[in-house]
């Protein structure tokens, strides 16, 4: 009897070992399926659907039917959608280098030896990230609005005239400033954490060889935190292509921001104002695929530059 029970006990142990990880992962899998996989699948389904009029004359009925790739062709040839992509790219050229450059600078400054109030400075730089994007946009919007802006008030008193923060090209810098204010702290924390993981013995050896702190930062710290820079850069690119809350919040304060100023605003307009769910779904799929392709290309490019051809 003991010899018979030993194999069954071993089988139960193996089954338990295999089932236990899946048991713990089940809630995450269920949530991932309900709130990501199913919505994506439904959006793809809607992107191939559209409304058509069946029956002639005054008695025609508006019915939803399969339209093939018509919604995708409409999205790709829509001047408003294409113009929105161009505005996002121009905004990204200004915002991404500024955010990453300042985040790297602050992280390097906080990592220097004998720096004072490191914890307070780190918290103060990170704190704006905790402010929701809509609230941050409202705060800066009132600072940009001529009737409420203390910056414009001081400029007029100094004889510089009123400042138009919503004109072209100042609008792009105004939006980039909001991203700068809220995004630097998050990226700085990632880079600073990566810097703290570098062994201090490397810095000591460099100082013994006569390297200055600037040389250590340029020749040792920045190359060693390259993976963190790649990660933050990828996050910044994805966030830029998903730009929505800042221009949508500032739109009532400005005449230069249209209802379709960026792709996500165009998608919102099609879905909830024009009742064109199929077109909005197709535009969303196009944007998501574009983000995925750009992210993969950038990740592959920086992996090769950072880790060599073996990446």
Automatic annotation (TrEMBL):
Subcellular location: Cell membrane
GO BP terms in the entry: transmembrane transport
GO cellular component: plasma membrane
Alphabetical keyword list: Cell membrane, Membrane, Transmembrane, Transmembrane helix, Transport
Gene3D superfamilies associated with the record: MetI-like
Transmembrane spans: 21-45, 88-111, 123-145, 165-192, 224-244, 280-302
Keyword Cytoplasm in record: no
The keyword Cell membrane appears for this protein: yes
Membrane topology of the entry: Multi-pass membrane protein
Family: Belongs to the binding-protein-dependent transport system permease family.
The name this protein goes by in its record: ABC transporter permease subunit
């Amino acid at each position: 009897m003991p010899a018979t029970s030993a194999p069954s006990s071993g089988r139960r142990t193996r089954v338990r070992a295999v089932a236990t990880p899946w048991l713990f992962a089940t809630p995450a899998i269920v949530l991932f399926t309900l709130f990501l996989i199913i919505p994506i699948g439904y959006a793809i389904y809607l992107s191939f659907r559209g409304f058509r009029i069946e029956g002639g004359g005054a008695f025609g009925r508006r019915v939803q039917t399969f339209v093939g790739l018509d919604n995708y062709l409409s999205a790709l040839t829509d001047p408003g959608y294409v113009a929105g992509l161009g505005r996002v790219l121009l905004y990204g050229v200004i915002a991404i280098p500024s955010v990453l450059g300042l985040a790297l600078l602050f992280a390097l400054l906080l990592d220097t030896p004998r720096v004072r109030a490191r914890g307070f400075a780190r918290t103060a730089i990170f704190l704006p990230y905790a402010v929701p994007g809509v609230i941050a946009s409202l705060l800066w919007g009132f600072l940009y609005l001529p009737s409420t802006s203390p910056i414009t008030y001081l400029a007029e008193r100094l004889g510089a005239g009123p400042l138009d923060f919503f004109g072209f090209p100042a609008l792009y810098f105004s939006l980039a400033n909001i991203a700068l204010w809220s995004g630097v702290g998050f990226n700085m924390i990632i880079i600073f954490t990566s810097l703290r993981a570098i062994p201090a013995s490397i810095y000591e050896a460099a100082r013994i060889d006569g390297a200055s702190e600037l040389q250590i930062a340029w020749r040792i710290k920045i190359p060693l935190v390259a993976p963190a820079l790649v990660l933050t850069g990828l996050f910044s690119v994805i966030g830029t292509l998903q730009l929505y809350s800042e221009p949508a919040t500032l739109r009532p304060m400005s005449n230069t921001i249209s209802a379709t100023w960026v792709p996500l605003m165009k998608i919102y307009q099609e879905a909830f104002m024009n009742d064109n769910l199929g077109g909005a779904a197709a535009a969303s799929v196009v944007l998501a695929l574009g983000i995925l392709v750009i992210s993969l290309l950038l990740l592959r490019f920086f992996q090769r530059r950072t880790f060599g051809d073996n990446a």
